[in-house]
Amino acid sequence: MRNTKLSIRKTRVNGRTFWRVTVPRLAGGRERRTFKSHEEAQTFFDLCQVEQRNHGTAALSISEGLRVEAVECSTLLEPFGKTLRDATKFYLNHLRAIQGSRTVREVVAELIAAREADGMAPRYVGDLRARLNRFAADFGDKTIAALSAKQITDWLRALSVGAVTRNSYRRRLAALFSFARRAGYASVNPMPDVEKAKERAGEIEILTVEETVRLLESASVETLPYWAIAAFTGVRPAEIERLSWDEIDREGGYVEVKAAMAKTASRRLVPIQPNLAAWLAPYAQAHGTICPTGLRKRLEADRERAGLRSEWPQNALRHGYGSYRLPILGDAGKLALEMGNSPTMVFRHYREVVKPREAERYWNIRPTRAKNVIALTA
Questions:
Q1: Interval 139-168 mean pLDDT
Q2: Model confidence pLDDT, tens digit, residues 273-326
Q3: How far apart are CA 239 and CA 315, in angstroms?
Q4: Phi-psi region of 28 (alpha: psi -120 to 50; beta: other; left: phi over 0)
Q5: Which of 2, 16, 56, 222 could lock onto 292 through a cystine, CB 3.0 to 4.6 A?
Q6: What is the pLDDT of residue 375?
Q7: CB-count burial class (<10 Å; 0-12, 13-18, 19+) for 56
C-alpha cells in the first residue's frame, strides 16, 4: 500500500501550470488541493504542516463541510464562553446517562421502595406514590434522563389543580429527579428550571364556636376523642390518626406527638387544656389507638349530622386551634412550638383572626356532667 504523505508539487492541466498539495486522510487515501500560484499552494501547505505538528494527521483529514460546521458551532458557543470540546464532553455525559438510565416507571418504583426502607412515614410514602404514579401514567415508558424541564412544566400546568397542589406535585418530582441523578440515571436534574406556581396567601377559614359545639354534639362515642383532640390541641389529622392512648399523658398534662409520627419529624408536647381533659375523662381506661377503623366514613357522618359536610374548611380544627389559642397565649413563638410550625407562619395566619371574647368562649366548650351534651360557660 502506497504511503501517502503531505506534499506539494507542480503539475500541468490543459497546458497550464498549477501547484497541487496532497493531504493524507486519517482513514486512508488522500485529498488534493490545486492552486494557480506557488505562493497560494505554499501557504496552504505551511498551514497543513502546522496542523499536522500540533494535532497529528487527524487534523488534516477534516472535510470542508466539517470545517464549516465546526466554525458555525464554535460561533454559537462563543457567547456562553464554551468550546466545542466543552459541548462534546457535556453531550457525551448525557448520552452515557441515557444509556445507563431507567424508565420513569422503574425509577418511581425504586424511589418508593427506598423511602419505605428508610423508614419514612407511611403517609408521606403514600402521597409520594399517588403523585408520582400519576406522573408515571403519562411518562412511565420514557427514559428519565431524556425528560426536559419544559415537558415537566407543561405536564404540571395541564393538571388543572390549584397552585398549592401543583407545587406539591413539583416537590415530589424534585425528589424523584434528585434520586435519579444520585443513582446515576440522569446527568442533569431539570427541576430547578421547572416553573413554580404562584401561591397567593388567602384568609384561613375556621369553625365558629357554635359550629364547633354542633360538631362535638354530633360526634359518635368512637370519634369524639378525635374531634376533641383536633379542636383543642391543633394536632394535624394525620398525626392524630397515629396517636395511641398511652401518648395522652393526663398526669403530665400534655399530648405527646412523637418524632416518628410528626410531619416535621420533630417531637413536640402539646398541653392538655382543662376543657379537653373534661372531654377525654370518660376514656380514662381506653387503650390502643385513638382512632377507630373506618375513620373517614365515620367523620363524614359526624359532619353531615352537624350540618357541616358541605361547609368544611380545609384544616378547619387545626386553624381553629391556632386562631383561638393565640389571643389566650399571647406568644406566637410558644404557639409555634405547640403546633409544630414556624413563628412567622403562626404570626401571619393567626394574628387578629379571633377576638379575645370569642377565644374565651371557645376554651369553655365543655361537656356537662348531667347529660351527654355540651354547655357553654363563659
A1: 89
A2: 999 999 999 998 898 999 999 998 999 999 888 887 555 777 789 888 888 988
A3: 13
A4: left
A5: 222
A6: 41
A7: exposed
Cα distance between residue 340 and residue 156, in whole Å: 29
Cross-strand bridge partners of residue 33:
21
Confidence of residue 376 (pLDDT cuts 50, 70, 90): very low
Concatenated DSSP letters for 201-228? --------HHHHHHHHHH--TTTHHHHH
Q: Is the pLDDT of residue 257 over 70?
A: yes
Q: Phi, psi (5° rounding) for residue 24?
A: -70, 145
Q: Which residue has the cell 384568609?
A: 203
Closest alpha carbon to 322 in 360, 354, 358, 279:
354
Which helix (H) or strand (E) element contains residue 270?
strand 268-271
Q: Is 330 left (phi over 0), alpha (psi -120 to 50) or beta?
A: left
Please tell me the predicted confidence (pLDDT) of residue 279: 94
Per the CB < 8 A criterion, the answer to whether 332 and 343 are in contact is yes
Look at residue 265 in the predicted model and tell me its pLDDT.
63
Cβ–Cβ under 8 Å, residues 223 and 135: no
Spatial distance between the Cα atoms of 343 and 331, rounded to a whole number of angstroms: 9
Kindly state the DSSP code that residue 28 receives in the 8-state scheme: S
Average pLDDT taken over every residue of the chain:
82
* pTM (predicted TM-score): 0.50
Q: Which amino acid is at 349?
A: H
290 Cβ neighbours under 8 A, 6+ residues apart: 225, 226, 229, 240, 243, 244, 245, 248
Rg of the chain over all Cα atoms, to the nearest angstrom: 36
Distance, in Å, from the CA atom of 135 to the CA atom of 131, rounded to the nearest integer, reads: 7
Contact 242, 288 (CB under 8 A): no
User: Bridge partners of 13?
Assistant: 16
pLDDT at 44 over 60: yes
Note whether 349 and 196 are within 8 A (CB).
no
